[in-house]
Input
Amino acid sequence: MRADTMPMNGTNREHNSNEDRAPSCREEEAFGYIRDKVNQMLTVIGTFPLKPDELDDDTLIQLDPLGIISDTFRQILTHLNETNIDLEAARDDLRAIFDSVGEGIMVLNTQGEIITYNEKMKSLFIDDSLDAVGLTCRDAVCNGETSEANCLFFQIRKRRKSVRVRSWHCRNRFYEIVATPIFSRDGELQRIVILYMNITNRRRTEMALLESEDRYRDLFDNATDMLLIIAPDGRILVVNKAWQETLGYDDDAVAHLNIFDILHPDHCEACRDKLRKILEDGREIACQAVFRSKAGKEVFVEGKINCRFVDGRPVALRGFFRDITEKLHMEEEMRRTQKLEAVGLLAGGIAHDFNNLLTGIIGNILLAKLKSNDPEVNQLLQNTENASYRAQELTRQLLTFAKGGAPVKETASVLGIIKEVTAFVLSGSKTTWTLEAEEEIKPVDVDTGQFSQVLQNLVINSDQAMPDGGMITVRVSNCTLSKQNAHPLPAGEYVRIDIRDQGIGVAKEHLSRIFDPYFSTKKRGSGLGLATAYSIIRNHNGLLTVDSELGVGTTMTIFLPVSTRKIKEKEAVSAEPRHGMGKILVMDDDEIVRKVVLQMLTHLGYEVAEAENGERAVEMYQEAIAENRPYDGVILDLTVPGKMGGKETIARLRSLDPQVKAIVSSGYSNDPIMADYTKYGFSGVVPKPYSMEKLSETVHSLFVK
Output
């Protein structure tokens, strides 16, 4: 509306009214225009428009609508200005909050370009001198190294939903990332907000825990002892590798086992009592028990059990066990050896004296036979001689118990001895036998007489276990035992001999005593056969074991160390005594022995002198040298109570005559001189009691020029 068409003030309006003039057409238009604009203003400010009957033209003019409009817009502008100030404050507050968040936040547009980011994001990924707004996140954060397939932006744009990455490694740090898409009302992707949470410390802690767990798991699994964790109700929760290997259960089987499933029935009740006490008072308890393997084998164990409590409640039992099966076997072996040694103390002394007596008896019988021409008398003498040799066999058995009864060894093959003894023992028996051997059995160092006695005892036992006949299988093989072998033997090469029968077997409760002296399951058994065999093999640095099952049969196994020497060919021994010439000195503390040996050697053609101890023998040997009538050889008794014996005597004689030829003789030895006589300066050995053939052969081979 123009100013010149509008009334300027109320005076003019009043004047016109007083003149009672009707408004002109132009005035009506002006009033209508003003009324329309006022209604628009009222609508803007939220007030209902005015109706014509509510506001006449005169009142409208008096309201000064232009002033009202001006004042209204001034108020609106003032309000807008105040609102803008509040919005700027709110924006600053939000920015402060945005920057104070302890994790990195970045906002991207739909092209993957950075719109904004907070201070933490900047400290994590963006150089201070760089404004990353407008850069792609690949360039600003990943340095362009991340492929599209692994890029969160591309994954969000493709999936159109939030994506979480639990662990992302970048710039020597670990992050957990959450990317969230923001959509418009019509579903268009507008923004992507990515949250970067630095979990480096947490991740390193987790890795340290995993490494620690791995170390303890490795220690748990590779411990040589058997470890297990048991629930309070007895269910087995966790076991280690040694436990599984010892008892033969795999993971699936263990998952369904209770501790009482693997315990021997005889130990279940005691185990329940101990577990009850542990759960009640929490004390650690040491125990011994017998587990049963999956295959039914009994495994003897010892160890400790304790309880883990949480908030005063028992949650698990921890068991630490060691397989002592072999230990117990070795202890049993030691007890058996101690028993043999105890018997040996008695047997050795008896055997020594008895052999001296037998030497006198057998020697005098032989001499009597040489002088008698009466057939009847000779037969009586022969019967007496046979009985004496039987007594000699009994003495030999007693000697095997003696601590110092070392065998007189020679290098030999066991095959020949096995064939000879087995064939002889089973001659006329219903039992048959077979020999299985590898192509080349290595030689061993054995006392052939004692080893034959072992074989004889074992084969006789097998034959007697099969009264209706059967098969004895003798298998011979070479074997090598490692340091971790299951037998109480040092590592090395051995010859193994298995003698297996099909007899009645031995009851389990008798196996631990089968090698004890005087223990026998046979009515007429003496109880010395297996004890003798065991002791002989042990004196050969070997081992004799037994494995038996009732109704199936028995297997006796012999281990003998392989010899480092070769087998020497034996010279044929004449069946008739060999005569000779020479001067021989005999030293023995037993007068009967001296007299018998003197007569036997004299009969064979030798000149003989005698001495009762080593001191006298040295004097006589020295006198003979001084008289230029030296002895061609000496026979020395090894043991002389209270005086100088053979070992000391040979040392003195060698100082007088380094070329002295000496034969060692004994009915019993407290040291291994009889087995390794050359080491001590002797040239030969003759065990008591003597036979004419053996004595003559040994003397002739050494002393006769």
Summary: Confidence is low (pLDDT under 50) at residues 1-21. The chain has five domains: 3-77, 101-204, 223-323, 339-390+575-705, 414-561.
